[in-house]
Amino acid sequence: MSFVVLAILVSAANLVLAHVGLTNIDSSWYDAHATFYGDMSGGETMQGACGYGDLFKQGYGLETAALSTALFNNGQTCGACFELMCVNSQYCKPNAGTIKITATNFCPPNYAEPFQYHWCNPPNNHFDLSMKMFLSFAEYRGGIVPVKFRRMMCGKSGGVRFEIKGNPYFIMVLVYNVGGAGDVTNVEIRGHKSNWIAMSRNWGQIWNTGLNLVGQRLSFVVRTSDGRSLAFFNVAPENWGFGQTYEGKLNF
């Protein structure tokens, strides 16, 4: 069977797999607390421990949060989406409803005194929101509020995007704008002259390989935490460059 025919069959099978059937995401409600960092412009929420850059250009905006150690899971939760509601506090805004955010950063633990500021320490579930998102359901003077949260499916516009970084001998790829479960658990890469290669998680949602694939068309297989996979064939052309972003035709 030729590679072209195999590619078409695998792509079709993965497309069906990604869009049919029940998700494995746990949508139960859990208890946590929420604070905020930065100002209304959201400048301090850019970059961060998930490897994302300008969150406005990448489509995340200010609908984001930094997660505590228990939720961040060493960066494996980056890209996941959550729904939060403010509960059981005089600082919850009446009829504010819920907010929806994407995990884009890490809220590090603090082991210094005073202990009342150890919100992000294990085993606490905590969301450090952008100021805009916090103020959409709680009063500024509240500072920290109890919340209920649950995982939700991510709705993204356009295809999954691949930003290529590094150098010819250490290629790094940021995978972002991922719909569905949102958090990527495995990435494979293939040059049109090579075999499929499993990439390693560098940090957050940046994946790397030591194979030199310069001058080859690049394809990817991406798997998310709910077990769904999609194949993206020939996403980057032979003349792809470092610092460039390439968008697939599919999303979860």
From TrEMBL:
Signal peptide: 1-18
Keywords: Cell wall, Cell wall biogenesis/degradation, Membrane, Secreted, Signal
Primary residence: secreted
Domain Expansin-like EG45: 47-159
Keyword presence, Cell wall biogenesis/degradation: yes
Domain Expansin-like CBD: residue ranges: 169-248
Domain of life the protein comes from: Eukaryota
Keyword Secreted: yes
Protein topology in the membrane: Peripheral membrane protein
Pfam families xrefs: DPBB_1 (PF03330), Expansin_C (PF01357)
PANTHER family: EXPANSIN-A15 (PTHR31867)
Name of the protein in question: Expansin
Lineage of source species: Eukaryota, Viridiplantae, Streptophyta, Embryophyta, Tracheophyta
